[in-house]
Automatic annotation (TrEMBL):
E.C. numbers: 4.2.1.51
Protein's UniProt name: prephenate dehydratase
GO cellular component: cytoplasm
Organism: Thioclava atlantica
Domain Prephenate dehydratase span(s) in chain numbering: 12-187
Length: 285
């Protein structure tokens, strides 16, 4: 995951959700030495880091099955934080129940609607009715408090550990490659690291001239820079000012990427680099 020169001071990393949420699992996987701090909203995560109460923020940006995580792209440019790493976390869904329950006892399973949808085959096979809960870890907590052997939760193994539930069935998701990409963010950027493969993330707005986006992208093609992601989104409810979010391979100091960014700058009226960081080895997996 690259060097950890982010200037850790509190030894804490902030995430959105309840203890045992998949973002909590991501913190444990990517930064096992840090204390994970739960926050209510994505904005709270960012504010916790900005106030210096945590060193890093763990923010999910996209899921391989469900695409973009809502709102995150709007928070990134204005957050005042910088991307210092990425983490790809496999989303393993488990059937959790109170101690002593058997799979044959389970009549209902509670979880976030997205997870219920991802385990349709298993739940149908076992005749388990789906109940929509607020989130995965919260559902695990409710199941633990109820103590009803006929009700289970779909959540991470970490949630089972935290709320004292037993795993009745592991990795029951329909798609075995379901993965969420997280960005790890800090107050200060870190442009010093050099790995085998570096990523650069930036946002930009094209100037209001004909074929501006086509011309802006030309520099990446002619300089042989691989763009792994390009997404558009509207800013401030304005239909004409479209902002773009992009991930490219390389470091801004690399001659090819430097030339491509210089060309991009000519066709944009706003360009901001959000982070330069080592590619997660699981990016190509």
């Amino acid at each position: 995951m690259g060097g950890h020169s982010e200037g850790q001071r509190t030894g804490r990393i902030a995430f959105q959700g309840e203890p045992g949420a998949y973002s909590h699992q991501a913190c444990r996987d990517a930064r096992p030495g840090l204390e994970a701090i739960p926050c209510r909203t994505f904005e709270d995560v960012i504010d916790t880091v900005k106030r210096g109460e945590a060193d890093l923020a763990m923010l999910p940006v996209e899921n391989s099955t469900y695409g973009r995580v809502a709102d995150i792209h709007y928070l990134l440019p204005s957050s005042g934080l910088h991307i210092v790493d990425e983490a790809f976390v496999r989303v393993h869904i488990n059937l959790l129940a109170v101690p002593g329950a058997q799979l044959s006892d389970i009549k209902q399973a509670m979880s976030h609607t997205v997870l219920l949808g991802q385990c349709r085959a298993f739940l149908t096979e076992h005749g388990i009715h789906r109940i929509t809960g607020a989130d995965t870890a919260g559902s695990a907590q409710i199941v633990a408090e109820k103590g009803d052997k006929s009700v289970a939760a779909l959540a991470s193994e970490l949630a089972g550990e935290i709320y004292g539930l037993e795993v009745l069935a592991r990795h029951i998701e329909d798609h075995s490659r379901n993965t969420t990409r997280f960005l790890i963010m800090a107050r200060e950027p870190d442009l010093t690291r050099r790995g085998d493969k570096m990523m650069t993330t930036f946002v930009f707005r094209v100037r209001n001239i004909p074929a501006a986006l086509y011309k802006a992208m030309g520099g990446f093609a002619t300089n042989g820079v691989n763009m792994t992601k390009l997404e558009s989104y509207m800013v401030g409810g304005n239909f004409t000012a479209t902002q773009f979010y992009a991930d490219v391979e390389g470091h801004p100091d690399d001659p090819a990427l430097a030339r491509a960014l210089e060309e991009l700058d000519y066709f944009t009226d706003y360009l901001e680099i959000l982070g330069v960081y080592p590619a997660d080895p699981r990016r190509d997996g």
